[in-house]
Design brief:
The complex is a heterodimer of chains A (442) and B (340). Chain A has 442 residues and is α/β, with parallel strands linked by helices. Chain A contains 13 helices and 17 strands. Chain B is built from 15 helices and no strands. The chains are: A alpha/beta (442), B mainly alpha (340).
Amino acid sequence: MKTFRHGIHPGDYKDLTRHIAIERMPFTDELVIPLSQHLGAPSRLLVKEGDKVYRGQIIGEPAGFVSIGQHAPVTGTVKAIEMRHHPSGKLVESVIISRDPYSPQTFYNEHAMEWESLTPGELISLIQHGGFVGLGGAAFPTHVKLSVPEGKKAKFLIINGVECEPYLTSDHRVMLEQFDDVFYGIRILEKVLGCERFYIGIENNKDDAIALLNKRIPADMNGEVVALQTKYPQGAEKMLIEAVLKREVPSGKLPIDVEVVVQNVGTIAGIGMMFRFGQPLIERVVTITGPGIEKPSNLLIPIGTKLADVLDYCGGLKENTRQVLFGGPMMGAPQVYMDVPIMKGTSGILCLTDEEVTIREEYPCIRCLRCVDACPVYLNPSRLGALAKTRDYEGMLGYHVMDCVECGSCSYVCPSNIPLVQRFRVAKALLREKQAKQRKAS
Amino acid sequence: MEKSAPKLLLTSSPFLKQQEDTPAVMRQVIFSLIPAILAGIYYFGISGILVIAASIAGAVGTEWIYLIGTKKKFNSIKDNTALLTGLLLALTLPPGIPLWMAFLGGIVAIALGKLIFGGIGSNIFNPALVGRAFLQASFPVALTTWSPISDFSGITQLRGHTFALPFVQSKIDAITAATPLSQMKFDSHLTELTHLFFGSSAGSLGETGAIFLLLGGIYMVLRNYINWRIPLGVFFMVIIFASVLHGVDPVKFAPASFHLFSGGLMLGAIFMATDPVSSPITHKGCWIFGMGIGFLVVLIRTFGGLPEGVMYAILLMNGVTPLINRVTQPPIYGYVKSKN
């Protein structure tokens, strides 16, 4: 069975929500839509306080190429435009919408789009204005990846249905329940990219999804489902390309340099839905799971719904909960403010208890090299960790710290409990800052 | 707000962790030495226990004093590495060695083998072997005086000069025996393989029974505590080199099986060479490292002045490890094709 080299085998912990069908979460009274939910420039505001907005109406437009549209997830009134807590920990300018309790909450624009006559450029613009980002967690604007630079070619489209983060099952449920949207979305992207073939990469802990999608591939489409051995971090773009096509993305380059575009399966389903029903990205499937939540679920949640409301809907947190994460346990971000909104890149909410959250004592590195055997990009985390400890960040550059994908496999396996990836993140941030300063100076 | 919110921790991902920590790993390595320890005690009686205790006391005591002196956290005692160093050193010593020497060896192993390099993880050479090399250089007679084996009936008897006072020449002549390696070296006498296999021949405390060390080794490979490429590399090279020599002159040169199962080869290949700190970090490097040891062992045993060469072979290859690491570093992801 196909896979990439190295990596780790944490348990998948997906049984909590694997078999729970997606359920629509009711609209809440107040929603918070940050103008920056993606990598790139924040969207440019199109509404003002007191404006009436309709579900699906654009309220923020792209403020440049690497920027996207934002939409009202409910029909209601713009209550305020102010700085609000963002899941990243920052304060971000956000549109606060109070729901109109009497509205039936239908779409503002409710018909299929006539897309077959459109050019790739027009389709890309629709996707950009539709507000699409990678729903796997990185929240990188989708249309940027679809805009193939001059002279390059996207031969293959890889659909990322790997979902290698333990606990999360949102992509799994989307594949099982929205496969029509997935295939429709693939058609759109094939038209945009002009690619020869598509592959849907799925790990073999989702046998049902592999079998179902295999059966449902429309006869006129040229693609296949690729079953992958379950291993973390296979959902990382570079690892997935290696697993499916045995191609390596050169350091500092992009997948398009090896003729590949990778898109998350949830993103594709969302695009399919937009072209089928006219609905932009105003809601997404989120897995709410972990030993700390009363009722683990897979919910279809309007973007902007507050974390506290979601937790309440799932029966609330158990008393011994110590950590609430946006994302999975390997790369997720812990939350401290319960009023942060669900965003476009929020794939899961994981609630961990005292049992799982332990602070461990750090021991000296004994160079057992489990980290070296785990690192999917062949770095030497042991050496990097030693350099990080003495803050020799320049020295870390020589050991290619900038190629680190921050998957956390090294920290996971380290028997000496050394916070390796945590230190690498700090080093990378400082090095990037320094490089930016140097660029400014010269 | 609503109900009292739970106290939430703010730390950085990942939040999943494999459970086994360094002290547990070291404990497992110590467990896998138990067959060899028990065999040593069976053959060499209470002296065996005392030598092990003295060596561990020297090693752990030194680490402890260092930690108190430098006011460091007590991590390096808790991680069991000093204990393992003391134990490994004891297993390489003659069972009849005076206890004070074993104790001193433990001190030197930790102090000169590890601490002066900056503690565990920074040492270049295997600490236990540094301790042994020091003893060999300082007390060549005591380190080459071997007690004969016995069985359970001799369990309470002391061997050699166990309680000799430091630096005092002992007046009592202890019973001694020749090891299979020195018999081979000086008399061209080949010990039977079964004796080598089950340890019923004279030699160091924990080195005589190949089978017991192999058992521990297989366990460690299965649990992924050691890199199997190192012992296999050693065995491979020993077999090749010794077979070639044996083929040239079967009377003068011992066969590969003798080299494989005699002396400290098993203990060295399985427990000493695989010390993660002083062995290479790449798989290819581990092959080179292991084969280098195998080659040096046969070379020293056959053509050197000493009957045994495992210790120096490993220490020499420890010294080359940084070089091996540099040469065998595999290209990292995304760098192979960018050159084309």
